[in-house]
Amino acid sequence: MLLSPATGGNLTLTQRDRRFGYLLTAPGLAVLLVVITFPLFFTVFTSFYDYTLLTPNHDTFIGGENYQEAADEEYLPGSLWVTVKFVLASVVIEFIIGFIVALSLNATDRFKTVYYLILLAPLLINPVVVGLLWRMLLHSELGIVNYAIGLVGIRPVSWLGDPTIAFWTVVLTDIWHQVSFMAILLLAGLAALPREPYEAARMDGASPLRCFFYITLPLMRPVIFVALLLRMIFAIKTFDIVFIMTKGGPGTATDIISYFIYRAAFFGLDIGRASAMAVGLLIIIIVLTALLYRYMRSLN
Amino acid sequence: MAEIGLRNLTKVYGQDVTAVDSIDLDVRDGEFMVLLGPSGCGKSTTLRMIAGLEAVTSGEIMIDGDVVNDVDPAERDLAVVFQNYALYPHMSVAGNLSFGLKLRKLPRDEIDRRIAATADMLGIGDLLKRRPRQLSGGQQQRVALGRALVRDPAAFLFDEPLSNLDAKLRAAMRTELIKLHRMLGKTIVHVTHDQVEAMTMGERICIMRDGRIVQVGPPLEVYRNPADTFVAGFLASPPMNLLDARLGGETGLDEVELPPVGLPLLARHKEALQGRAGGAITLGIRPEDLDVEPSAAQHAAMTVTVVAVEALGPEVILVGALPGGQEVSARLESDFAAPAGSEVQLHVDLERLHFFDTDTGRAVTAS
Ligand SMILES: Nc1ncnc2c1ncn2[C@@H]1O[C@H](COP(=O)(O)OP(=O)(O)OP(=O)(O)O)[C@@H](O)[C@H]1O
Ligand SMILES: [Mg+2]
Questions:
Q1: Alpha-carbon torsion B122, B127, B131, B134, what sign?
Q2: Contact assessment for residue A159 and residue A165, using Cβ atoms and an 8 Å cutoff
Q3: What is the distance in A from the centroid of ligand 2 to the CA of B44?
Q4: Using the beta-carbon criterion (under 8 Å), do B99 and A204 form an inter-chain contact?
């Protein structure tokens, strides 16, 4: 056989294709293994040991003690509460704004590409950069925002200094960054909706508002569910913005769980306990992901 | 009950796509009107303008004498059955049927009564709990029809509702729709590009081409007297043979020449063709007016070379070439057989000849 490759032997075409596929993906998989799988298992493993930065080794197995300690952590409930508030606030507001934007874009024909580009721009920016950007814009003395509102006579606002305002500042920054994701996901869903039921509904005498509630919403349910869940999963892991903008402060106003864990590890220096909390967070995210996966499978 | 009138109705999409070009049409109260035409001729656009789903560019739509151009679709009291059914995918069959009634705030028991009656009439009583996805094409079609029927509108607009069905179901539904129309006596405008559907269902047919109406009339009349070569070539299958011919003979008006034959002209035809002596003419012969037997009262013979013989079962279509090279189809008895290349003599029914102006394609008739 002229074309028989050196490695081929008497493999079938599919087997050869598959082998070639593995070969091509091997470098990528190797990198993933190193940067994702290894840290993952390391974290789970470490969470059962008394591993601190003073004793950075796996000499002392302590079972569930880290988990116990984490659960007893005085500030953990507060941090969880901040996280829940943050996730709900940002996802709900993103959903409402995203849906309105998607509905209006879906009804537009002209300049669609331009709108898409504008919409996509924030998504292309790294979250760290987003955090830095807004920290500068909102700087209480040097920021342009305070300067601008000063022009119309509003006193400067301490965007990141006041606990309540700082929380909403972070939420709004996250919304600014992520709302496009929601809008584009919902827009894709809207664009894929059949046009005919709307015409039938017009003949049946349904007002636009009724069309929205009786046709659009029910038909969009799967997309809405997926969009909300996806954004929730991402929002729970938010770290960068908080790290850059507030470092969890002022006080514990923006101390969301991922930053809380980070502090336990690198300020509390207790890697074992931080690992235990990280594993807890991982479990929550896995449950949500499983839910998402099950739902998406049930759709087809 | 509703009369529908179209006055100079025009629809231009964007800047320059004229989908419907100033058409005039009157659909009588209780009439079954069929809009027939090839794909893209503007049938759906016309129907959608009547329904109110498409804005009118110019002209008027009248229902019972009132201009309804700016009346909301829901207020026109019309029901549409869409080509792809357009059922509400997330509602059950019962939900689909009741949606419009609920919006109109009918009392619950009235809604139930109507749904039961309609479901009964269409034989979809067992399907009421199902979703459209769980129905076959024919069942969905019935539900779409049912959704129009429960509303009890003044008139129905059908946009090719049968085109997605298989041949057998389509024939059955055709009969059903005719029965339904007879029972309800409501005005129906039915769009189709299927000439069999048009011939069998329509009380009148309106034939459209390129956004214009070419001819309106009862099916048989349109069949017998097509207004131009387009209608002649569109209606019936196989369509009318259209042959390039010339008027000739001693006076130039004695016969129509298809060299080497000359078919004698009847007095009636001579009258109609007055003033065209010796000129070019398009001769129309229906395949059913050609026969191997000299059966017609007035007939003439011509010889064709067999190109193909298509056995359709109850009949045979003979495709033959005239000496001049033009092809003709003839509809013959099912026992006819002849090898390709052989010569066959066909007899033309002279009473049934059609003449069209070669340049304009318009039928030449005594005026
Ligand atoms: N929304 C639209 N925008 C631009 N042009 C359109 C639009 N809808 C229809 N047209 C054009 O208008 C013409 C008539 O379309 P229409 O849908 O009425 O045809 P039709 O007779 O229903 O054809 P078919 O039998 O294929 O359904 C076509 O040339 C079509 O391309
Ligand atoms: Mg159409």
A1: negative
A2: yes
A3: 4
A4: yes
User: Residue B114 is inside which H or E element, if any?
Assistant: helix B108-122
Residue A300 confidence class, pLDDT cut points 50, 70, 90: low
Name all domains of chain A by residue range, CATH numbers in brackets. Answer: 1-37 (no CATH), 76-254 (1.10.3720.10)
Chain A contact present for B88, CB below 8 A: yes
CB A146 within 8 A of CB A157: yes
pLDDT tens, residue by residue, A111-122 = 888 888 888 889
Centroid of ligand 2 to alpha carbon of B99 (angstroms): 25
pLDDT of residue A176: 93
Of the candidates A276, A231, A286, A285, the one whose C-alpha atom is nearest the C-alpha of residue A76 is A276
B-chain residues within 8 Å CB-CB of A203? 51, 53, 73-74, 78-80, 100
Distance from CA of A289 to the nearest CA of B (A): 26
> Three-class SS string for A230-257?
HHHHHHHCCCHHHHHHCCCCCCCCCCCH
CB of B232 within 8 A of CB of B240?
yes
Cis-peptide into A27, omega within 30 deg: no
Which chain B residues are closer than 8 Å to A196 by Cβ? 82, 84-86
pLDDT at position B313 is 86
Q: Do A219 and B89 touch (CB under 8 A)?
A: yes
- Nearest ligand atom owner, CA of B41: 1
A-facing residues of B in 36-65 (CB < 8 A) are 51-53
Q: How far is the CA of B272 from the centre of ligand 2 (A)?
A: 38
Could you report the per-residue pLDDT of A176-209, keeping only the tens digit for each?
999 999 999 999 999 889 888 999 998 888 888 9
- State the pTM of this model: 0.78
In this complex, do B104 and A205 lie within 8 Å of one another by their Cβ atoms? Answer: yes
Contact A201 B79 (CB under 8 A): no
With a cut of 70, say whether residue A9 has pLDDT above it.
no
Helix (H, G, I), strand (E, B) or coil at B100: helix
Nearest atom within ligand 1 for CA of residue B46: 18
**Are the CB atoms for B226 and B232 separated by under 8 Å?**
yes
> Across residues A219-244, what is the average pLDDT?
89
Statement: residue B269 has pLDDT above 70: yes
pLDDT in tens, A21-59: 899 999 999 998 889 888 889 888 888 888 887 778 888
Would an 8 Å CB–CB cutoff place A194 in contact with chain B? yes
> Could you tell me the pLDDT band of residue A1, with boundaries at 50, 70 and 90?
very low
CA nearest to B148 within chain A? A204
Does residue B144 surpass a pLDDT of 70?
Answer: yes
Q: Is A209 on the interface with B (CB under 8 A)?
A: no
For residue B131, give how far its alpha carbon lies from the nearest alpha carbon of chain A (Å): 13
Which tokens belong to A13?
């075409």
Q: Rounded to a whole number, what is the distance in angstroms from the first to the last CA of chain A?
A: 44
Cβ neighbors of B298 (< 8 A, separation 6 or more) are B266, B349, B350, B351
* Dihedral angle computed from the Cα positions of residues B4, B9, B15 and B19, in that order, rounded to the nearest 10 degrees: 70
HSE (side-chain half, CA atoms, 13 Å) at B358: 12
A50-64, B75-89, B91-105, B330-344: range with lowest mean pLDDT: A50-64
Q: What pLDDT is recorded for position A164?
A: 87
